[in-house]
Fold this sequence. Notes:
The complex is a heterodimer of chains A (370) and B (627). Chain A is mostly helical and 370 residues long. Chain A has helices at 8-17, 21-41, 46-67, 71-95, 115-133, 140-158, 163-179, 184-204, 207-217, 227-240, 251-254, 266-298, 303-327, 346-363; strands at residues 97-99, 102-107, 112-113. Chain A has a 3-stranded antiparallel β-sheet with strand order 1-2-3, covered by helices on one side. Residues 1-5 of chain A have low confidence and may be disordered. Chain B is elongated and about 150 Å long. At the A-B interface, helix 7, helix 10, helix 12 and helix 13 of A face helix 1 and helix 2 of B.
Amino acid sequence: MSLLPDDRASRLMQAPLHLDVPLLTGILLLSALGGVILYSASGQSLDVLLRQGLRLGLALAVMVFVAQVPPQLMFRWAPWLYVAGVLLLVAVMVAGDVGKGAQRWLDLKFLRFQPSELVKVTVPLMLARVLSEGPLPPSVLRVAGAALLVLLPTALIARQPDLGTALLVGSSGAFVLFLAGLRWRLIGLLVGAIAAAAPVAWMFLRDYQRQRVLTFLDPQNDPLGSGYHIIQSKIAIGSGGVYGKGWLNGTQSHLDFLPERATDFIFAVVSEEFGLLGVGVLLALYLYIIARGLYVASRAQEPFGRLLGGSLVLTFFVYVFVNVGMVTGLLPVVGVPLPLVSYGGTSLVTVMAGFGILMAVYSHQRPVDR
Amino acid sequence: MRDRKQESLLVTNRLVLALVGVVLLIGALLGRLFYLQVVSHDHFATLSEDNRVKLVPVPPTRGQVYDRHGVLLAHNQLSFGLEVTPESVPDMERALADLGEVIEVRAGELTRFRSLLKRRRRFESAPLRLNLSEEEVARFAVNRHRFPGFDVEARLTRYYPLGVSSAHVVGYVGRIDEQELQTLDGADYAGTTHIGKTGVEKAYEESLHGRVGYEQVEANAAGRLLRVLSHRPAVSGKDVYLHVDMSLQLAAEEALGAENGAVVAIEPHTGAVRALVSRPGFDPNPFVNGIDVASYRALQSARERPLYNRALRGQYPPGSTVKPFMALAGLFYNVGLATGATYCRGSFSLPGVRHVFRDWKRGGHGRVDLNLAIMRSCDVYFYEMALALGIDRMHEFMSGFGFGQPTGIDVGGELPGLMPSTEWKKTRRGQNWYLGETVNAGIGQGYWLATPVQLATAAAAMATRGQRVEPRVARAVVDPATGRMTPVTTRTRHTGPPESSRFWDKVIEAMVNVVHSPGGTALRVGADARYRIAGKTGTAQVFSLRGGKYNEKTVEKHLRDHALFIAFAPAEDPRIAVAVLVENGGGGSRTAAPVARKVMDHYLLGGTGASTADPLTGAAEDEEEGE
């Protein structure tokens, strides 16, 4: 598949719907593969597959809708959306629903809404605007302001507590800064500051979060408790070997040894049933989507679009990296799904909305300025 | 003025840099996956298999126990029980309280259950209720969701159809306890919950138990078994066929009536135990799944001691029943008195000793030879005989007949009794032997103790003219799958004078006279017999009335003497040897001898409706010699 936007098919699609066909193809291929995996991981439940299909349809609709929005409009709405996101986070803190020991949900009678998902988009949106308004690379003052804009929602989410989302929101902001040409000296300084803040952050962590980190460092320490997930996941992956045990034949997953197999740990199911070859194909597909996404971002007309698009693509990569890193025991257990494959709706919609934004900043070209 | 081009380039550069980072990190993930899936594949594949496959032991079905005629004495009954796995019960007390609304659980069962919980292996279930009715099973099934960790399970429960009558022979099985767990072969008993505790059940445990089978099953993380991958079937335990004739056993029990005591009947030439009765008995069935504490305590503290196996473990002074053996010893050691005679004045004293040894007959028996001394049970004759023999020769001779040592009967638990000697007294008591003690031993009193099974074995050895055969309760072990029969073997030793010796005739003739000649102490039981009986009465003193007069009517029942009788018949071709003990029965001739007579009648003349077909060969069983 060509990375170039100039072939006929993409032109045809691009014109009416502002969609990037190569990127869309990658997304659809990945979603199809995800369906195949989910069918196995859910214990061959057509019901689960159907519901995931409906969610995917909804998410694609959101993507198509967002792709129609001109970047100028996004630029203009960025502050309002940002403020709305932060206010909703505060609302969750005050009146949110408690689910699984964390306050993440806002009950709006007809639907349960997770404001932190919205913030995943509004933070890079706001930061892209703030940074693209000034010259690049940004001044120290602007960087400091931007950092505060990232820290506020990140801290609110971390308090819910939702470490995974906080990580994604924080990194989406960081990516905008990085892409804006943040000087290496400043990058070094920020990394140093984060490292220095780590012990302080440790004090603010909840017990179960600390446990996760400790478990990550030594899973054998608690093989039946929190270390169980990682141990069983590694067994699933390792026993898959090069060729895997075959579709629907994963013993670790089908005999319930693997926890959260349809959601956060679905990558272990892929590894067990399709082996190294299977996960190679899966990771190649992700790499293709990311590469195409970065290319698309680089072809955006305005710095705002490039920063925003690039940040969203890189955040998408963080999903993949953190999830796979967690499942393979490289990283601590943080609740981050494998995008487009894991069962679940909210993050799917957010990811697709991100792709919609990416396509929008690429396809809405103003003819004059070029 | 902003340099748009420069800024574009900067962002593009950073995007390229980011792509490089992404590629590198995905490479790192692939490296990690390579390590897990290729380098460590074998390790994780093994772990995965261990996760998946569980080895589940399949306990074998325990073998059954039959009597001589194929009457079932122990078998396995399918019953529904309510089993509880405490590890899966969130709140035991509440669950037990709630359960009361669904199924009745009596207080006794509850206490039994609680004590079982303390002794059970981890993750092993313990029965709360046994023998659930179908209605109770259904009622529980409806409410099952309320009781996690509670399951109705169909299992085979050991059952003893003859209950009390078989208890002291067959014994019973019970749950494996902590102590047994230490010594058992864990692999062999994986999945087995019960083990033989006493009697045949214990002695033939190895044959009855069978061999454990295994199923390789796929299990999920919750331990639920999904499918069987492969299996090695359990090998059922072997059936044990006994020599014991339950109809004879019941006849002996009936003959004892309400008295406490023991009856042992042995076929002299084969050592086959035809009856082994200890009264009172107890119902072994409650022991199978753990008897409740109150019932157990009641059994233990009862004065009649029903759990006490008198036949094997009751050690009594053998009294006058030793006199034929004393006479034989006299002949064997060529003691002058044995071929001569003495004059009995009703008492005997040693020079320089003030104690007077009395004869049971106050006036004395007058002139007595060997025959009369046995017939009338003259004490003075045997006081003198004992002195002439000396305790150590007595010890040697009596040991040959099995006194003072276990008979070697196949069911365990028997006690050795005691045959004293100078050496025994020195090493055990640290004292010298006194002549007076030899005199006492001459009539089976003093230190001398014997068990009923010893007396029966000794009587059998007399009947066979010196063939001492180790008694056997079990006849053969049969593999139910192949029908292959393995006979239970025994050992035979010769003791006393050679078989052809005239000494035997003299003593046996005297024993016949005890039962059949005028003046014999057991004349009453022999008067109308259709075969000739050789026997000897005996009395074991419980309570010594020093100098006082023993009057049965004035002495409390539990202080009365024990009545003893040993016999074999027919005297000229003995087919059965019997020892009877009646606790506190007074004189042997009046209470013990009639019991022996009834047992021998039943055995030799045929009881009412006893089957005669051999359960193992199917042949009619009239010629016993064939065995």
